[in-house]
Amino acid sequence: DAGVIQSPRHEVTEMGQEVTLRCKPISGHDYLFWYRQTMMRGLELLIYFNNNVPIDDSGMPEDRFSAKMPNASFSTLKIQPSEPRDSAVYFCASSLHTSTDTQYFGPGTRLTVL
Amino acid sequence: RKEVEQDPGPFNVPEGATVAFNCTYSNSASQSFFWYRQDCRKEPKLLMSVYSSGNEDGRFTAQLNRASQYISLLIRDSKLSDSATYLCVVNRMDTGNQFYFGTGTSLTVIP
Could you read off the pLDDT tens digit of each residue along chain A, which spans 114 residues? Predict the structure, then answer.
């Protein structure tokens, strides 16, 4: 079975540009999570969805960040405009039926904002 | 105060050694506990859940102390392949079932 798929794997962009990260969860999983990982702060939950509906977005740092899940097999995380402090690894994860089920992580997108 | 705190290490141990990591959590409302493993430049993967009575999976033993609010992971007979970062994770029902990850403890097993 394919795991969680993320694209792109690496993104280098300039400050002020729009960045869109993509995620395809494991088929049949009801929950999708977006995390950001940095050396200083570790893994931080940004937002999560249940059956395509955003449940908790309290971790989204600023209005520059937005996330959508238009259907069960696709989600995007958008940063507009991007800033150097947004540089991090962004992980998408999915879990089966509850938010306490095992979370399966994608390979991550390594974002560098110059 | 951070939700979850771990000693970042690094822990450098010889093959065959026993090593233990501790993790403390700040909120008594925490309900579920896990250890995840993350290899260098890879995604985190579930290593094991932590149950109140303690649980074992091969060379790995996890324990929970609710009174003192800490979780431990013991690795016996360390293998080179155990080298990774170990993330302590807690889940709180009162914040919408959020997962809180520690920043991880780095382990290197030396031949």
Answer: 689 999 999 999 999 999 999 999 999 999 999 999 998 888 999 999 999 999 989 889 889 999 999 999 999 999 999 999 999 999 999 999 876 788 999 999 999 999
Q: How many CB atoms lie within 10 A of CB B72?
A: 17
Cβ within 8 Å, pair B98-A45 = yes
One-character DSSP codes across B56-95: EETTEEEEEETTTTEEEEEE-S--GGG-EEEEEEEEEGGG
Choose among A41, A103, A105: nearest CA to B5: A41
CB interface of A with B, residues 16-35, below 8 Å: 33, 35
A2 contact B CB<8A: no
A56 interaction partners in chain B (CB closer than 8 Å) = 95-96, 98
